[in-house]
Design brief:
Elements lengths: L3 E5 L3 H11 L5 E5 L2 H7 L5 E6 L1 E2 L2 E2 H11 L4 E6 L4 H9 L4 E4 L4 H32 L8 H14 L5 E4 L6 H10 L8 E5 L5 H9 L16 H4 L4 E5 L6 H13 L1 E2 L8 E2 L3 E6 L3 H6 L5 H7 L2 E4 L10 H16 L5 E2 L1 H9 L5 H15 L4 E2 L14 H16 L7 H20 L4 H8 L3 H10 L4
Parallel strand pairs: 1-2, 1-3, 3-6, 6-7, 8-13, 8-14, 9-10, 10-13, 15-16
Antiparallel strand pairs: 4-5, 11-12
């Protein structure tokens, strides 16, 4: 680190003394006699500023505020011949590193300056460690399909803007990963990322988890507890499955999002928290609003920007890159040695419909990596249901080919009606079994009128 010292002082004798004391110690010293040129000379980064409190063109305290605002890494030591308690308190409150009076002891100045640069070096090392940790934690959203490229663009557009974001998509599509990507690409990346799943916590406990509580706030509250909102101060709060929030809690959450203030349970204390909120859901929030299950004002508060994640079956070109990414991660995590997927295994991954989306793919690769013998992961190691690897069209074509091979040689066999009626009968039978014989549920599942279902049941003599 280059040791740069900037003196902003109109007293030439002070400038001369500081240069005489510090330059032999290896410090690079520059000076400015007024506040305006002095502020222009502040570089930020790791630079020490000796700032006079009374200057010909302005107040050093105002200059301190501007430096702290524009160059938070610069260290400022206030220097003055007019030492007053009020000035000292104000300077320290505004973020001055130290405060020394004229005439000052040269040895004391050397010690103070040396300590300031030592603290800057420690801070620089900590920033490097934090940066390395952030890079290690930074999520990798993998994909090259047009739909995922749009998601990447959306992340890039919203990350730097401190606005609320709603991430939607089926379970397992990677909504939390997108929220993390937004956080780690924002100015809040140095702050905490706190996630909470509204569906995994009982509704009567969710408010306490979000806002925290004071000792004795309710039965069992033996100690004070910091809530997720306060824990996320300076960073990002990710609220997964927001559709599951109780309507009363929705009102309290809305107030916090508007005011950035809240009170923990059992307390009149008002807490301020600078938190960016990202919500996620796999449900249709508009439908929830129309049913009265979700507040309309909270919906619009969340839906400032919406990022919609496509299911994996709609971006099949991403399956191979994702599988490769997860395999590499599993090899490292479980220390299995180098593994690769056989051609048959790769083909199955591409044909499978992935109802559990990216999460299911990750689990399948991890499981296969651990359980497979040797360096090659075979199709059987994936433990995927073979039938699920076909679309309905592919499944029916495969089955009908065998059935129809002989039938097509026959004339007047009424093939079309026979096949359609048998498929329809089997489908109705399966759905009725799955719904426990409930005809109303079965009709909704099939997407037909209940009277139509009754007619079909009678026609096919289904019991």
């Amino acid at each position: 680190m280059e040791k740069e010292v900037l003196i902003i002082d109109d007293d030439e004798s002070i400038t001369w003394v500081v240069k005489k004391a510090l330059e032999p110690q290896g410090y690079k010293v520059t000076s400015r006699p007024k506040l305006s040129p002095g502020l222009r000379a502040v570089k930020g980064g790791f630079q020490l500023v000796l700032l006079d409190i009374v200057l010909p063109d302005g107040s050093g305290l105002e200059g301190l505020k501007e430096i702290r605002s524009s160059y938070p890494d610069a260290v400022v030591i206030m220097v003055t011949a007019h030492g007053k308690m009020e000035s000292t308190v104000e300077a320290m409150k505004e973020g001055a590193y130290d405060y020394i009076e004229k005439p000052f002891d040269i040895e004391e100045l050397k010690i103070t300056v040396e300590k300031a640069f030592r603290d800057m070096a420690v801070r620089e090392e900590l920033n490097s460690l934090r940066s390395a940790t952030a890079e290690a934690e930074e999520p990798q959203v993998v994909g090259k399909s047009p739909k995922m490229l749009k998601v990447f663009k959306d992340i890039g557009r919203v990350a730097s803007k401190d606005i609320t974001v709603l991430v939607t998509g089926e379970s397992g599509t990677g909504k939390e990963l997108v929220a993390k990507a937004i956080h780690y690409n924002s100015k809040r990346r140095g702050g905490p990322f706190v996630a909470i799943n509204s569906a995994s916590i009982p509704r009567d406990l969710m408010e306490a988890e979000l806002f925290g509580w004071e000792k004795g706030a309710f039965t069992g509250a033996r100690d004070k507890h910091t809530g997720k909102i306060e824990a996320a101060n300076g960073g990002t709060l990710f609220l997964d499955e927001i559709s599951e929030l109780d309507t009363n809690l929705q009102a309290k959450l809305l107030r916090f999002m508007q005011d950035k203030k809240f009170s923990p349970l059992g307390s009149n204390r008002v807490v301020e928290a600078d938190v960016r909120v990202i919500g996620a859901t796999n449900k249709d929030l508009k439908d929830a609003v129309s049913r009265g299950a979700f507040r309309e004002d909270l919906y619009y508060r969340f839906n400032v920007v919406q990022i919609k994640l496509p299911p994996l079956r709609e971006r099949r070109e991403d399956i191979s890159p994702l599988a490769k990414h997860f395999l590499k991660d599993a090899e490292k995590r479980f220390e299995t040695g180098k593994k690769e997927l056989s051609k048959e295994a790769k083909d199955l991954l591409l044909k499978y419909d992935w109802p559990g989306n990216v999460r299911e793919l990750e689990n399948a690769i991890r499981r296969a990596c651990v359980l497979s013998n040797g360096a090659v992961i075979e199709k059987r190691d994936l433990l995927l249901e073979e039938a699920s690897s076909f679309t309905i069209k592919e499944f029916l074509e495969d089955k009908l080919k065998r059935y129809l091979k002989e039938m097509t040689n026959l004339e007047n066999c009424n093939l079309y009606e026979t096949v359609i009626s048998e498929v329809e009968k089997a489908l109705i039978n399966i759905v009725l079994n799955e719904t426990g014989g409930n005809q109303l549920k079965a009709a909704k599942t099939l997407g037909i009128n209940r009277n139509t279902l009754r007619t079909k049941i009678k026609e096919y003599r289904i019991k």
